[in-house]
Amino acid sequence: MAPPMNGPRYNEFIQSPKVRVIDGDGENLGVMFTREAIEQAAEVGLDLVEVSPNADPPVAKFLDVGKYKYEAQKKANLARKSQKTQEIKEIKMRPNIDDHDYDVKMKSIHKFIGEGDKVKVTLRFRGRELAHGQLGMQLLQRVQADTEADAKVEQHPRMEGRQMLMVLAPK
Question: At the N or C end, where does the chain have fewer CB atoms within 10 A?
Fold first, then answer.
């Protein structure tokens, strides 16, 4: 029989000569030889499962292996389902953006940050707009001031070719 690839070791796969045994009701039976503990587990119709292999001596418990693996898998799936991944949303602007357009972009930024996502604000310069880099910097500082209550600047404004970038993260 091949050793189990994933999950805890059980019965004859336990390599330690002695283990601390806990019975099916959760009572500590003390330290005993592994072979003896496997026989006792078999008498009550359960398997000897290593629950804490790094302890000295390892801790083993009388359990049903199939049920134990199933419950561990369910717990892992639940943990994976409940975690939230943080995405980076991008908002693109131009240096000569109008007030109403700016308000619409800010509404989007507040919505994204409220959902727990990071926001990358990209300011694209065209043609001779590049000569007026200070206008872009003023606009990004205005964005920073307007989102100060619920976001922190993760990456301060910087030029990258014909674009100016800034990254905001939720507080």
Answer: N
Give the per-residue pLDDT at 5: 66
Nearest of 74, 76, 121 to residue 97 by alpha carbon: 121
For residue 22, the Cα-to-chain-centroid distance in whole angstroms is 33
The total number of structural domains that make up the chain: 2
- Model-level pTM greater than 0.70? no
Q: What is the pLDDT of residues 105-140, one digit of tens each?
A: 999 999 999 999 999 999 999 999 999 889 999 999
Q: Whole-angstrom Cα distance, residue 61 to residue 83?
A: 30
Determine the structural domain holding residue 43 and report its residue range. Answer: 11-81
Chosen domain end from 81, 103, 125: 81
Of 68, 1, 4, 11, give the one whose Cα is nearest residue 39. Answer: 11
